TrEMBL record:
Species whose genome carries this gene: Bucco capensis
GO terms under cellular component: mitochondrion
PANTHER family membership: T-CELL ACTIVATION INHIBITOR, MITOCHONDRIAL
Domain DUF4460: start-end pairs: 19-127
Lineage, uppermost ranks: Eukaryota, Metazoa, Chordata, Craniata, Vertebrata
Identification of the protein by name: TCAIM protein
Spans through the membrane: none
Taxonomy, superkingdom: Eukaryota
One Pfam family it belongs to: DUF4460
Domain DUF4461 per the UniProt entry, residue ranges: 180-482
Amino acid sequence: FCYFIRLCLEKILLQCTPQSRTLSGADAINALRPFYFAVHPDFFGQHPKEREVNENSLKRLNGYLENLQKPGFRSFKPIQLTFYVRERNSSNVQESFNASGFRAVSFTLHTRDLLSTVLDILNSCSLSTEHIQSLNVNSQPLKEAKSTVNRPIKWDKTYYSFTGLRDPEEELEQAQRVETTLMSWLDDNEASAVKKLKKSLPLRKELERLKFELSHQLQLSDIRWQRSWGIAHRCSQLHSLGRLVQQRPEVLKNVKGRTVIFTDRSGMSAAGHIMLGTMDVHHHWTKIFERLPNYYKLQKRLLFLEDRISQLLGGIQVIYIEELQPLLTIEEYYKTLDSFYNKLRDSRLLFHPHSLRGLQMILESDRYAPSLHEFGHFTIPTICDPATLQWFIFAKAQEARENLKRKEEMMITERELMDTSAEKFSLDRLYKEPSVSSAQMINCCKRLLEESLPYLQGMHLCISHFYCVLQDGDLCIPWNWK
């Protein structure tokens, strides 16, 4: 009888609390608009690392929000997310500023309903929550709602022992106390990954077929994607390109030997690749292909500029690294080179001819001081003072040569360890995200090879900075897994 009374009281109390007034998915999206605006990857185009972190965190956040909206959803695991935010606001959450001046915000989500989750996200990023009052999802003032929305019904521990129900406080404490390990995470997610992978296999075969046929038909060097879109999305993009080939074959006569990249905008990249914007229609793509002869002329002028800069800087080679630099159009990159060349030409720097041959440098417009990358190339700001530039290159030249040599050795070691790991665990594919360095990948593979991981047989494994099962069944694990 007491048990029955307790259950009735619990039901009545739950109906009286703000949690019973659930927030719809559409309302949640509207409420989170300030947050999405602050962290949207498209606003970080000049900062590939921050953009990638926000993209990955948004994927995990969307999965968490989707689970909260599933009927009868009970079990959940707190997840920690990190976002780079454009504006600086006072906050009590863990945050730090990177070299680009963005604020890194880290917070943990552990709530069971949409409203409290939305409030947690906005408050964690120091964003206003006043606009949520207009959504009419809670009759109480927002300040009061914030204080009560997460209020649990606290039962004596004997209640949970008697009923067999889970104690939410104990679950949260245990989740926060126990650190996620590779084995425990694989135990929990292997079945889900296998299911998604099997479902994606027909689409993966279709993708490979389409890619091979288009590459062969157009004599392309490669077809790539800037972002980690799903397999279905990629197939759709290749079908669109295939239809254009059938409808306007004459406009694709100048693509031989080139690389096509599906990305956010159309044009030619600084590296000389043909960019097809995924939001553009065939009319825009057709214009890009028709402009290719002009793009090729501009590319020749760009190469000439790079050669002139190299001569002024003692033979140092000017390069463009897609993985480390923003995806610039060839017009944007040409303007950057031209501005930098004019500054060097007027400064009359004294570099001995060919004294820096074998060294490399990249140009960036959002930095203020030169630096030397661990891979051996110089990162030079376009606004760098010529005298400072000359002193820095002279001071770091020997270290740069040593880093370049170490890079070659490291890349060989990385490739060997990846091949060995893929073979040992019978992986169908092993790859890493661009933000994972060779040193981190080597460390990860060495530690993996010491383990026995039968779960990985036939899987697609991505080395990243977080745990995640992608929509097509790829397993993402952090390089520094425990």
